[in-house]
Write a structure and sequence with these properties.
The protein has about 500 residues and is α/β, with parallel strands linked by helices. The chain is about 35% helix and about 20% strand. The chain is built from 18 helices and 20 strands. It has a five-stranded mixed barrel, surrounded by four helices. It has a five-stranded parallel beta sheet with strand order 18-17-19-9-20, sandwiched between helices. It is elongated.
Length: about 500
């Protein structure tokens, strides 16, 4: 483990941090610097050698939404006109949240006096979440070491120091501070220089870009609200951003006012949904991925030739529901074992959900062909180019990595398949953003593979790399297995 130095100002803070540390924790030293920036600066000048530096203790809230006992993890420390970044803040904040604490991430301000009243409100306008009197000089002395600043709120604008609520605030803050030490030891254990191998291609595919642009253009053309049936793509960050711009996501069309602008998601819908939209005079814009639309067309074509349509896919996925809806008597199989249970009375044709792991889908398809020698499949592989490329790329980085991180939301099929593919070669985990990364995964890992599902925004990958830089120097290398040039045209409804 990297040697960790935890600086606190007060004896009570040092006591609370030490109390939370496991007796077996080694390489951790808690020191008391004294209160105020002058004492902190003197302590900073003689700090012992350490591999990682953390400042922990109490703080006063500037943001009125904070309450006593809330934990502020600084993403930057502001002091004396300087700004000291704390790049690993999302990793720490996520770990503290999983420990059961109420956590906010944002700027921490260091002042040379206790602030209150009008000054407190003025400083809150700067965007800083909280204020203390020691972190700034200590952050200035980090000198390239991994730096963390974790402060627990004691007083707030509504409950200032030396008020009737002070004692309660201290008790809540003290209890929270005892839980900070163990997290900081895991943070230090994860601190190290490392290599990050970026899989390429990664992140958005052409179908996802098209779907998002459709909603954005609809909002620009018609103004909010624009209704979207289901998530436009399976990513929480994308959905949240579009909601902030005026998109309203609904599960079913009966939640949409008659005549409203309505977008069908990239995963496609069954004909019954289209009929319902027509019956309610909804102004529909179809964002179905053209590659999903191809599978729908294949299902209709095979059924029109009298064949029993069998779809290889995952039950409950929106794409699967839409494809099955094209042919009401079609059958779904999820794995090889279900092929043996198929009961059919006519020749078989099989199709595939576009976001499956290619090798597993082929295993099921081979079982279908073995049981039904006259079975027909699609003229071209149904699994989309983006899924295939991303799976090949993640294999390339997993071969060299001690750990693979896949950025994507839990309901993203293509992201889940990337975890499965990488997981056959090395430990692999799905994360929605840096806050989902468990520090214990990183300990002792010198090389990390990093990719993102086709519905995950590229900036999230950058955010993971930035957070890892907060643990030590990062060398980034890319492993490219394909060049993607596919682009899809937009529907006429958003071109006018």
């Amino acid at each position: 483990m990297t040697e960790l130095l935890i600086c606190t100002a007060l004896g009570l803070e040092a006591w609370a941090v030490r109390r939370g540390l496991d007796a077996s924790a080694t390489g951790v030293r808690v020191i008391r610097t004294g209160m105020g920036p002058r004492r902190a600066a003197r302590a900073a000048a003689v700090l012992p050698e350490s591999g990682a530096l953390a400042v922990a203790g109490f703080a006063g809230a500037l943001d009125p939404a904070l309450r006593p006992g809330d934990v502020v993890v600084a993403n930057e420390v502001r002091f004396g006109g300087q700004v000291f970044p704390c790049l690993s803040a999302p990793l720490l904040a996520g770990e503290l949240t999983r420990a059961g604490l109420s956590v906010r991430t944002g700027p921490l301000l260091t002042c040379d006096h206790v602030v209150s009243g009008v000054e407190r409100r003025r400083l809150a306008g700067s965007g800083a979440l909280a204020v203390d009197m020691e972190t700034g000089p200590l952050a200035a002395a980090a000198d390239g070491r991994p730096l963390a600043a974790v402060r627990v709120v004691v007083d707030t604008p509504r409950a200032p120091l030396l008020s009737a609520a002070t004692l309660r605030g201290f008790n809540l803050a003290r209890r929270a501070l005892t839980q900070v030490g163990p997290v900081l030891t895991r943070w230090a254990a994860a601190a190290a220089p490392r290599t990050v191998l970026l899989a390429a291609p990664r992140s958005f595919c052409a179908g996802v870009e098209r779907a998002i642009e459709i909603v954005e253009r609809a909002l620009e053309r018609d103004g909010p609200p624009v209704y979207v049936r289901k998530q436009i793509v399976h990513n929480e960050h994308v959905v949240r951003e579009l909601e902030q711009r005026g998109a309203v996501f609904v599960d079913e069309l009966d939640e949409v006012p008659a005549g409203a602008v309505t977008v069908f998601s990239a995963h496609g819908v069954a004909p019954s949904v289209r009929d319902e939209a027509g019956g309610r005079n909804l102004r529909v814009i179809d964002a179905t991925c053209p590659l999903v639309a191809k599978v729908h067309a294949e299902a209709r074509r095979f059924a029109g030739r009298g064949r029993q349509v069998v779809l290889i896919g995952h039950a409950g996925h929106e794409e699967v529901e839409g494809t099955l809806g094209e042919v009401p008597d079609s059958l779904l199989v999820e794995d090889v074992s279900q092929v043996a249970e198929l009961s059919v009375d006519r020749p078989v044709a099989y199709l595939t959900q576009t976001t499956l792991a290619a090798d597993e889908a082929e295993e099921v398809a081979a079982a279908i062909r073995a049981r039904f020698p006259d079975a027909e499949g699609p003229a071209q592989d149904d699994i989309c180019y983006a899924t295939t490329n991303r799976q090949a790329a993640v294999r390339a980085v997993a071969d060299e990595a001690g750990l693979v991180l896949v950025v994507g939301s839990a309901n993203s099929s293509n992201s889940q398949r990337l975890v499965e593919v990488a997981g056959r070669l090395t430990p692999a985990y799905l994360v929605d953003d840096p806050g989902d990364i468990a520090l214990e995964w990183l300990a002792g890992v010198a090389t990390i593979g990093l990719t993102a599902g086709a519905s995950a925004p590229p900036p999230l990958v950058d955010a993971v790399v930035t957070a890892l830089r907060g643990l030590g120097a990062v060398l980034v290398e890319e492993r490219k297995v394909a060049q993607e040039t596919t682009r899809f045209t937009l529907p006429k409804e958003v071109l006018s």
